[in-house]
Fold each of these.
Amino acid sequence: MTTTTFDFDDMLAKIKDRQWALADIDWDEPGAETISPELHAKLKPFMADLMWIENVGARGFAAMAKKAPTETLKDIYRHFHAEEQKHANAELALMKRWGMLDGDKIPEPNINVKLVIDFLDKYADGMSMSFLGTVIPMLEVALDGALIKFITDEVPDPVAQDVFRKINSDESRHLATDYAVMDLLGHARIRKLAIDLVGGWLNPTLMIGIFSYVPLLNKMRDNIVEMGVDEEKLYGAMRKYKNVGERSAFARRLPMYQIVKYHGSMVINRNHPYHLLADALVKLTAHIPERLLGAQPTWSKELTYEPAA
Ligand SMILES: [Fe+2]
Ligand SMILES: [Fe+2]
């Protein structure tokens, strides 16, 4: 079996070296006027969702930090957790710059993002490393790391371009690490992988997770189409997840990887009957009454557009 050698210490050093802060950016620099009223209208809900998806990533990495098998990896995930929060705050600062915020109120995400946040908040800490380590890379490749790339060409503001570049560079390290961890997890004995898989699926909360995740992908696809971006870009990003297994025989051994990959192949096939279900779930979830959802998690209070470190 072939395996890639990945130096996690080296990655941690690189992460520390490439830190940036909201204070590094001049948020009042000219260029905000390049956002036309039409773009402004489309961008506003998109940015609100994007900002909350960063928090989905942050919550996932917080859970990973607890599960990680080595001190280096724990430290890497703690940095990624903070970086996702920084991405959220930077996006909030862009929204403020573009006059999209209503006073000091944090914008609300769409219902599907809310459901996933609610799910992760309740259950992420109870999930196994091999489960989190195979699901989070898909979220990153399709949503967290990808959405900004999709809109980069649509947003002419130079300050946004600068912010997007910084975020993209963080995301490249998230992805490289995500993939290396999948390879690492795939080294476990088949017996252990099987136990993790069965244990994961016996957990009834997993179904809640699936019913949150399925409509989220389709909802975000609708949103990027709304922004004028070709949905093929999303599918192209999702195909990258499949490529990981083509490169690493160990990642391929992970049962959850096979499941997430199979699910991805249905998502990127627009003619697959899967979309009847997923689109129906988007419509259905849109009717969930507000009162049934939990209050916004306490950690979301940390969100701020203030240019503190
Ligand atoms: Fe991010
Ligand atoms: Fe990320």
Note: The mean pLDDT is 87.
Amino acid sequence: MSQSAPELETAGRRLPGDLDKAEMMDRIIRVDHAGEFGAVQIYKGQLAVLGKTASAQTIQHMAEQERRHLEKFEALVVERGVRPTALQPLWTVAGFALGAVTALMGEKAAMACTAAVESVIDQHYAKQADVLGPDEAPLKAVIEEFRAEEAEHHDTAIARGAEEAPAYPLLSGLIKAGSRAAIWLSERV
Ligand SMILES: [Fe+2]
Ligand SMILES: [Fe+2]
């Protein structure tokens, strides 16, 4: 996507064969709502296991920010009449399970999960911010604000030993692949 034409309106940033603007906006709101919903579930799963450990306060803080992100996208779903993803029941279970299972592997594995998910979300929000023009400035500002917080979650997780988790490259690779698949599906289904 071109950063050379920041004055272009959202629809003007499309290439031939791309989605029309309405459909593109639907996908953006749907997938972000799904992602923030999933994030809330992941941190819930982590807290169910690690709620009494040294990491609890850190995770609690991230969980609160995710709840704020989710509330914003819930409001946008209503405001713009977007159909939420049909996969929400799946993300309820999968998100919680991902959080809980990695937490059961230890605090560092939980942090590896956070670092992997948040790095994918960071890239995802960056891509979205790039296609949104001045006609979508308020949404773009929201996405950029949330993106900064996701990056902060990523950095916190690295600082708390994510990369020292057992089988870190494998674990991280699997979770990133899963997150990308979840994004792809939630845009469409
Ligand atoms: Fe978030
Ligand atoms: Fe996050």
Note: The chain is about 75% helix and 0% strand.
